[in-house]
Automatic annotation (TrEMBL):
InterPro entries, per database record: Helicase_SWF/SNF/SWI_bac, SNF2-like_sf
Protein name per UniProt: DEAD/DEAH box helicase
Sequence ranges assigned to domain Helicase SWF/SNF/SWI type bacterial in this UniProt record: 2-77
Lineage of producing organism: Bacteria, Pseudomonadati, Pseudomonadota, Gammaproteobacteria, Vibrionales
Gene3D superfamilies found in the cross-reference section: Tandem AAA-ATPase domain
Keyword tags: ATP-binding, Helicase, Hydrolase, Nucleotide-binding
The keyword Zinc belongs to this UniProt entry's keyword annotation: no
Coiled coil (UniProt feature): none
GO molecular function: helicase activity
Amino acid sequence: DFYIDSSNQVYFFDEETKKIRQNLQELGQFELKDGTLQARKSLAYSLAHLFEGRDRVSFSQEFQNLAQDLTHPEDFPLQATQVKADLRDYQEKGIGWLQMLHHYGFGGILADDMGL
């Protein structure tokens, strides 16, 4: 397997790179531009795990923040709300999760198991 860039330079893939390439193809839409992988934000969680521990891969700070927040939403700083209520811990976590999703332009639904 190989890749030819815009300047017609040829890059041959080693076994590790072939595995990564296969995983990327399974994930779907992405683009390689000037040695940089460009993908939808919704793939951040999967990409972070795919490339975890690989020394030859580096991420932008923005991507690192997104992957961190998706992986550990409980650490996302809770913003003040206009809701005047005493919330339980799990409700605060849920609101924090929704705020984190909103911050990155994602949508989400929060539901409970009370059958409401």
